Amino acid sequence: MTIKAHTKILMTGAAGGLGQALRARLKANCDTLRLSDRVDFGAAGDGEEVVLADLANAQEVNAAVQGVEAIVHLGGVSVEGAFMPILQANILGMYNLYEAARLHGVKRVVFASSNHVTGFYRQSETIDATHAPRPDSLYGVSKAFGEDLSRLYFDRYGIETACVRIGSSFPEPRDRRMLATWLSFDDLHRLITACLSTPVLGHSIIFGMSDNAVTWWDNRCARHVGYVPQDSSDVFRDAVYARTSAPDLDDPVAQFQGGGFVAAGPFGA
After folding, report:
1. pTM of the predicted model as reported, rounded to 2 decimal places
2. What spatial distance separates the first Cα and last Cα of the chain, rounded to whole Å?
3. Which fold has domain 8-263?
4. Catalytic residues
5. What 3-state class would DSSP assign to 23?
6. Distances (CA, A) of 131 to 122, 128, 182
7. Could you tell me the residue ranges of all domains in the chain?
8. How is residue 14 annotated by DSSP?
9. Residue 88 and residue 91: Cα distance in Å, rounded?
10. How far is the C-alpha of 107 from the C-alpha of 157, rounded, in Å?
11. Secondary structure tally for the chain: helices H, strands E
């Protein structure tokens, strides 16, 4: 069930993969869905508004946030890469977004954090939100910064935030690692709906995963949010095993939860 708890919601990163997957789904959560990205992604449809904004531009972000009641923040760099683009979009952009939220009285944000905040925990470990960050990349560091910044804006200004550490959100798992990290698009929407509509959100860290039999993450600290996944990677297990080889357990990519991010190229490359 989708609960409509807000009149107008801003979704950043509308041109990205998750933004495209959620665009139609999130319109059920509000009367008007304002869509934003830094690149042109087409005209607004029924029940939509389009506002182009570069996250690194405070004035543009301020205009995008004005008049909304909640924000689903998917925008920014979503992979490992050179530091400067990550700095501009994920760090400066995060600051600009929260300053705009403060100025315009927005009190609820769903922030697309990442499992790469904790990517240097081993795949033999099960962790929850009380475990310290162990980022596996500059990208992971930027998301850890976002979690800390949102905590500051909750403690000081009362802006409630759900930091959703998204695992691997695709139509189906692509490899064996994703059998543990997979999050269906429908479950992602269920999770965002729960974050937008729960009576008291506070500052919450939630691992974004479906109901997978194999998992490294425990959401016991987020029971108050009310997220109940309904999909599972288990139905894809046989197919994934058939098309992939057994992992090399001496390879860091198979040892750590961050997978390939722990072995990404040199910083700045």
Report:
1. 0.96
2. 45
3. Rossmann fold (3.40.50)
4. 139
5. helix
6. 13, 6, 21
7. 8-263
8. T
9. 6
10. 9
11. 9, 7
**Position of tokens 């304002």?**
34
Round to whole Å and give the CA distance between 235 and 219: 22
CA 126/CA 215 separation, integer angstroms: 8
How far is the C-alpha of 92 from the C-alpha of 146, rounded, in Å?
10
pLDDT at 170: 97
Q: How many residues are recorded in the chain?
A: 269
Mean per-residue pLDDT pooled into runs of 10, the chain (269 residues):
88 97 97 96 94 98 98 96 95 98 98 98 98 97 98 98 98 97 98 97 98 97 97 98 94 95 73
Q: Collect all residues with Cβ–Cβ distance below 8 Å to 13 and sequence separation of at least 6.
A: 19, 36, 37, 73, 74, 75, 76, 112
Q: Which amino acid is at 66?
A: Q
Report the distance separating Cα 182 and Cα 32, nearest Å.
29
pLDDT of residue 1: 66
User: Which residue carries 């994920």 as its tokens?
Assistant: 90
CB-based contact 188:167 (threshold 8 Å) = no
Cβ-contact 177, 170 below 8 angstroms: no
Six-digit token string for 81? 């890469």
Q: Which residues of 69-82 are buried (b: 16+ CB within 10 A; e: fewer)?
A: bbbbbbbbbbebbe
Q: Token pair for residue 267?
A: 């910083």
